[in-house]
């Protein structure tokens, strides 16, 4: 069983991973000053790049939408995986073996190596199948795609390929790449007979099935020839990589749009996914030979940020009996969602692929636009099972449909559907309301956590995220006996964003940018001066205090320096710290950065000297020189020393 990853190992993974290399896999980055890179933000739509990466401090920040974090949070958000999974993925990337707390364990090196070999074999097979689609022997496969409105560009977008006829085309190819039969048996791409293993997929159109990170983990194959005695669709069997209850075809292409639009469209087949995406519904996915179940819902809720603030899940089903059955099965899982669930059924019974083929892209968009609430569909489907022309049929229909209405979460919508049901049944509203009320009471349970249960505190909350300012104590006494504690938000300090037009605030900001990005500049006497500096802008003062608390010990490692600092600052200021850590410094060479940093720190220290001089000058003016000549002389000497320090700063700069 996996335990918590050791804190020092998380720090090591963060420090040893090049954030630019990781981000480059998702975003096209271009140089934006010495040691800084910019690109279009992957978290929101924009025309001008405002997403900035600063490898030296190991952080990113978008100056458009405010998203920020380190390499672990970036992988978490973009791949929609947990903190634990992101750390393990990055550790594998750099070949680092993680250790776990409390005797727990993660995947061992042997398992990691075996998994990577399987992934590599699938990648090679994926490339092989795609290359085969362009050969003369794949004419039937290309015709299949063409007849359904898919050109070569569409095939390439979705990675569609072709498995040659014969028994060992793929087998020979993978053996030639160094894979043993023992390894190949584990991939699910081969069957086994009396003479050994042979290709599972033969003479079929092939779709690669990828996980949420875009890794090929299995294949779906469609029959093309009449003499093929196998099923119409043949998928990879369950393997160490491929678990059909946890896989959604197209999730790798759809995940960002699902997260951005907070919409998930569930269709039934691979070509339906292709048709939807090409028609302008880029949130479409499909299950792989199984019903949409609990594990799929977990994936969907994570992508949708299913927290009750919006989002919708739309199921499309054929209009036949099987499609209705599938819709009702989906309704049984509806309560696991907070998002609204809908169903879209084409009256003619056409699926999205057929609809696009016969009526064009707009017809597919119209189908999704015509969605109806899933509970309405479920109620009507329930009524169809009864003869509403008889009293007995109407009573039976009421008994069966009232619990469906009772399941509607929105208490404001439930009475409206009770009235609709009364109209459909031709019965008094009061009678239907009583039946729904009875069903509601029977279904009533003690208040529980959000759909899917309360998973408890995630490892991401325990690890990787710094403790909140409100919860850290920081000198705040707890409530006395019998006194309800204040909510965390009431304990958080309030910081207004500093006015960029204020010259003092601008000076303090520039000094903090230098401190965060070039902490090596603060060593020795400079650290003492910086520590003694007095910041007047509240937000910058809090960050300065956090820097003093962090100390100079980690200055040689800017990644850990900034990470430690983020744990010291009040939580509301973490985005500002991230911003200060990545904003490009106005210099294009290493020498230029050095000059700039020295100049900024000199100006900060000069400002500090000016403030102290003003205070001592005030003391001097208030002092009667004749009554305390020694104090008068001391203040004059200190003023002279301060002026000499100020002139020295200017000459050094």
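^ structure tokens above, recovered residues below v
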């Amino acid at each position: 069983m996996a335990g918590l990853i050791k804190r020092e190992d998380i720090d090591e993974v963060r420090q040893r991973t090049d954030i630019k290399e990781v981000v480059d896999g998702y975003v096209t980055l271009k140089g934006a000053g010495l040691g800084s890179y910019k690109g279009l933000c992957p978290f929101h739509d924009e025309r001008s790049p405002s997403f900035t990466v600063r490898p030296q401090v190991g952080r990113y920040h978008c100056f458009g939408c405010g998203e920020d974090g380190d390499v672990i949070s970036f992988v978490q958000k973009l791949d929609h995986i947990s903190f634990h999974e992101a750390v393990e993925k990055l550790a594998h990337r750099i070949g680092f073996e993680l250790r776990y707390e409390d005797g727990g364990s993660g995947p061992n090196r042997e398992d990691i190596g075996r998994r990577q070999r399987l992934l590599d074999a699938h990648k090679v097979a994926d490339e092989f199948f795609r290359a085969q689609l362009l050969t003369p022997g794949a004419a039937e496969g290309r015709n299949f795609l063409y007849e359904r409105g898919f050109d070569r560009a569409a095939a390439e977008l979705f990675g569609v390929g072709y498995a040659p006829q014969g028994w060992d085309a793929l087998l020979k190819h993978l053996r030639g790449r160094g894979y043993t039969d023992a390894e190949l048996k584990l991939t699910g791409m081969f069957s086994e007979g009396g003479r050994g293993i042979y290709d599972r997929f033969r003479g079929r159109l092939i779709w690669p099935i990828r996980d949420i990170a875009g890794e090929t983990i299995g294949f779906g194959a469609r029959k093309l020839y009449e003499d093929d005695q196998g099923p119409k669709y043949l998928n990879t069997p369950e393997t160490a990589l491929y678990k059909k209850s946890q896989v959604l075809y197209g999730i790798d292409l759809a995940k960002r749009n699902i997260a951005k639009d907070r919409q998930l469209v569930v269709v039934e087949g691979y070509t339906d996914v292709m048709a939807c995406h090409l028609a302008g519904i880029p949130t479409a996915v499909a299950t792989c030979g199984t019903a949409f179940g609990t594990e799929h819902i977990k994936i969907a809720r994570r992508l949708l940020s299913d927290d009750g603030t919006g989002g919708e899940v739309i199921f499309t089903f054929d209009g036949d009996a099987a499609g209705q059955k599938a819709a009702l099965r989906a309704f049984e899982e509806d309560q696991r969602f907070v998002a609204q669930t809908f169903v879209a059924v084409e009256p003619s019974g056409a699926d999205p692929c057929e609809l696009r083929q016969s009526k064009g892209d707009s017809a597919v968009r119209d189908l999704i636009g015509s969605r109806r609430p899933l509970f309405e569909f479920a109620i009507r489907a329930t009524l169809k099972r009864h003869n509403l022309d008889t009293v007995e049929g109407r009573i039976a229909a009421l008994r069966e449909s009232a619990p469906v209405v009772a399941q509607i979460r929105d208490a404001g919508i439930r009475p409206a559907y009770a009235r609709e049901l009364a109209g459909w049944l031709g019965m008094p509203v009061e009678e239907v309301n009583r039946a729904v009320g009875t069903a509601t009471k029977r279904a009533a349970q003690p208040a529980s956590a959000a759909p899917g249960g309360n998973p408890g505190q995630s490892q991401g909350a325990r690890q990787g995220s710094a403790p909140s300012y409100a919860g850290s104590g920081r000198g705040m006494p707890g409530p006395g006996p019998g006194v309800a504690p204040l909510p965390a938000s009431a304990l958080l300090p309030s910081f207004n964003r500093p006015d960029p037009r204020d010259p003092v605030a601008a000076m303090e900001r520039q000094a903090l940018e230098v401190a965060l990005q070039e902490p090596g500049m603060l060593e020795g006497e400079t650290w003492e001066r910086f520590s003694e500096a007095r910041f007047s802008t509240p937000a910058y003062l809090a960050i300065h205090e956090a820097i003093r608390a962090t100390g100079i010990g980690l200055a040689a490692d800017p990644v850990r320096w900034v990470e430690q600092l983020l744990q010291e600052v009040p939580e509301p200021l973490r985005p500002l710290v991230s911003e200060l850590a990545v904003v490009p410094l106005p210099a294009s060479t290493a020498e230029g950065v050095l000059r700039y940093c020295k100049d900024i720190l000199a100006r900060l220290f000069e400002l500090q000297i000016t403030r102290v001089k003003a205070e001592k000058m005030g003391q001097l003016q208030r002092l009667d020189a004749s009554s305390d000549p020694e104090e008068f002389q001391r203040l004059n000497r200190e003023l002279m020393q301060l002026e000499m320090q100020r002139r020295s700063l200017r000459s050094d700069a």
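Residues 385-443 form one domain.
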